[in-house]
Design goal:
Layout (H helix, E strand, L loop, with lengths): L15 H26 L14 H9 L6 E3 L5 H6 L4 H8 L33 H15 L5 E6 L6 H12 L4 E7 L2 E2 L2 E2 H4 L16 E5 L3 H16 L5 E6 L17 H8 L3 H11 L5 H23 L16
Parallel strand pairs: 1-2, 2-3, 3-7, 6-7
Antiparallel strand pairs: 4-5
Helix pairs in contact: 1-2, 1-10, 1-11, 2-8, 4-11, 5-6
The chain binds thiamine diphosphate and magnesium ion.
Length: 330
């Protein structure tokens, strides 16, 4: 494994406020997810959800390379993408609590949150389901003649789906403005990548579609940002799609019920030491951008924001049972 302990000092070119923003976004995702877990243990969230803890640098680095009017497609593990793109945390919380004022009027839950206002075309319970949606959105962009870009998030497991192959090939043939971002978190449920993929070299697969393939350290928010920026610029300038792998790790179980029998405690501990937030803190401190007191202040503000969102959601109305069939089409 490559040396993943330090962030490169060549990336000091971003202004302070953007670095602080990236740090805050990572903390917002981390503490949102911790709150979701807690609310579930308290019996206040039901259904299922998939926590993004450990992967925060992937969503934040990638979305930082986008404009507000660009689109994303997301996955079953979508809270991080959603928050990174600018969603309202109170409305996400209301949705997870099944409230009428949530993003899907309380009917969708974790895996169906979409937010068209921020360009989030939606989480998706179908593994690989977002990939053709991203290609379709990119085709629409091309037909309309705007210069927007689609960032398509999916997991290593999604690469084994037929829909992935069809959509990436289609996007390549038509040179569509899309970045296919594979979040390689080492597992698809209990299946390790080295068993589930014919080749561990995810980026190399791009060659078979005639598009560039890039691999980035997914726990280094600036490395993800740099790789995503290049891919986004290529897409925006008519250069077509890129396949970008972010190598990361999910620190929690696959879903709410996971006894972690398929991996060792040592492996989890090793990745915990590469925590993307702590690594970014060390770098920010070394660069003189933020100090320990600043980290604490951001953390306290974010924790307050999350508690406010929980209180907001608690006070929201439940859906009216008489409207149960609203939005059911089949
Ligand atoms: C088409 C389809 N097949 C199977 C599943 C069940 N399933 C849910 S998540 C998952 C693993 C996905 O792994 P990956 O794409 O690597 O994403 P990760 O969970 O690691 O973020 C599977 C098999 C599903 N939701 N959809
Ligand atoms: Mg995976």
């Amino acid at each position: 494994m490559s040396n993943m302990t330090s962030l490169s000092a060549t990336r000091a070119t971003l202004p302070r406020e953007r670095l602080v923003h990236m740090y805050r976004q990572m903390r917002r995702i981390r503490h949102f997810e911790e709150a979701v877990d807690r609310l579930f243990q308290q019996g206040l969230i039901w259904g299922t959800f998939h926590l993004y803890i450990g992967q925060e640098a992937s969503a934040v680095g990638a979305v930082e390379a986008l404009r507000p009017d660009d689109y994303i497609t997301s996955t079953h593990r979508g809270h991080g993408h959603c928050i990174a793109k600018g969603a309202s945390i109170p409305l996400m919380m209301a949705e997870l609590r099944g409230k009428e004022t949530g993003y899907c009027r309380g009917r969708g839950g974790s895996m169906h949150i979409a937010d068209l206002d921020t360009g989030n075309l939606g989480a998706n319970g179908i593994v690989g389901g977002g990939v053709p949606i991203a290609a379709g959105a990119a085709l629409a962009i091309k037909k309309k003649g705007t210069d927007q870009v689609v960032m398509c998030f999916f997991g290593d497991g999604a690469m084994q789906q037929g829909a992935f192959h069809e959509a990436v090939n289609f996007a390549s043939v038509f040179k569509l403005p899309v970045v296919f971002l594979c979040e390689n978190n080492q597992y698809a449920m209990s299946m390790p990548v080295e068993k589930g993929l014919g080749s561990n070299d995810i980026a190399a697969r791009a060659a078979s579609y005639g598009i560039p393939g890039v691999s980035a350290d997914g726990n280094d928010v600036l490395a993800v940002y740099e790789a995503a920026k290049e891919a986004v610029e290529r897409a925006r300038n008519g250069g077509g799609p890129t396949l970008l792998e972010t190598r990361t790790y999910r620190l929690r179980g696959h879903s709410k019920s996971d006894a972690n029998r398929y991996r060792t405690r040592e492996e989890i501990e090793e990745w915990r030491r590469r925590c993307p937030i702590e690594r970014f803190e060390r770098w920010l401190e070394a660069q003189g951008v933020m100090a320990a007191a600043d980290f604490e202040a951001v953390k306290a503000e974010v924790l307050r924001e999350i508690e406010d969102a929980i209180a907001f959601a608690e006070g929201q109305p439940d859906p009216d049972p008489a409207q149960l069939a609203d939005g059911v089409y089949a």
